[in-house]
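Consider the following assembly input.
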Amino acid sequence: MNARCEYLLRLGDDALILGQQLGLWTGHGPVLEEDIALTNIGLDQIGQARAWLTLAGRFEGKGRDEDQLAYFRSPAEFRNAQLCERPNGHFGDTIARQFLFDAYATELHAGLCQSEDSDIAAIARKSAKESAYHFRHSRAWMIRLGDGTEESHHRIQQSLNEILPYAGDLFHTDAVAASAASEGWGIDPSSLRDPWNSHVEEMLKESGLMRPESTSERTGGRIGQHGEQLSQLLEEMQVLPRTYPKAEW
Amino acid sequence: MRSPNDWVSLLETVPDPEIPVLNVVEMGIVRSVECPGNSIIIKITPTYMGCPAMDAIADDIQAKLGPIAMEESKTLRVELVYSPAWTTDWLDDAAKAKLEKYGIAPPVKTSDKRALQGEPSEIHCPHCKSKDTRLVSLFGSTACKAHYQCNSCSEPFDYFKCI
Ligand SMILES: [Zn+2]
């Protein structure tokens, strides 16, 4: 498989899996406004996933479109960061996951606007506006919960402690990432770690939250290593098109 | 035979499915119309990547303009493009006035980074025109709107997000 296809699958799968997870909040938000917010963000993610996966399919050159890539790959073929497949948990868990992702996505999309591939740059410019808006939302909630009551502070700190090690995949570098940077159509994700860290530090300062001490990072999502959560998620997401492959709606 | 401009005039009869007070041209969704050979190619761009109305918009355009193209023995195709990225700057003053009359506060242009980082400066209540309003949620009834409430008349209202 060529590097550009592989790279685009990573971008697309992150957005797809996170979007699917956020969609699960429909009707379950803690308040109506947040129910709407989380599902709106999910919708943006799905929209971005469609664009990235369509492009991935074109570079793959086997005639697979966004739907075939989303619905007819097995868990081991998914390239999403493990962060994205972590369970929704409670509202704070979802917000902590979203904050870490949004802080990364704003930097990623801003960087990809400079891509020498005009399709990648076009999708990035569109996504950059959306991810910056998402970031504003998740950041505000991290601060509100961290700087809130004793209970909210304690719980969001727990959420952050649990999710932080899973950010490792976001900055994972390998031959694909190296080609992306050297050939000018993508960026090496390891270069996003410093700007991402600044966002995290700023948030910690404003929210009064602490960076957890032990953060031995987990990686493997980019080479198809996933938790059981992803299998369950895909099973639900894929059941209809797999049962009725020719179905249209 | 119709010129690209004639086709734009026809597109002005296709309303935005979510904000029917504006048509797809006023919304800035229609980016170009080309008429090479026997085809008419209409390029549209989404307001938001996940905007569920895009398919409906393409279908509406096809349903309304497709038969007219057939009369000229031409085929009409609607294509989706992402570049340049849609921006609320493409809504002109007339479109903004229509939005406000419809009960949606139009986007307020903020030249600095505040639009993305913090609150947009001043959102007027579309009902009583009061400047004393508050943000309820960054997200509203559709992808392109945020949710506000007026402190003067207490009415909730949609604000068209500035992007
Ligand atoms: Zn009012």
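Chain A has one domain: 3-212+222-243. Ask yourself how this observation constrains the way the partners meet.
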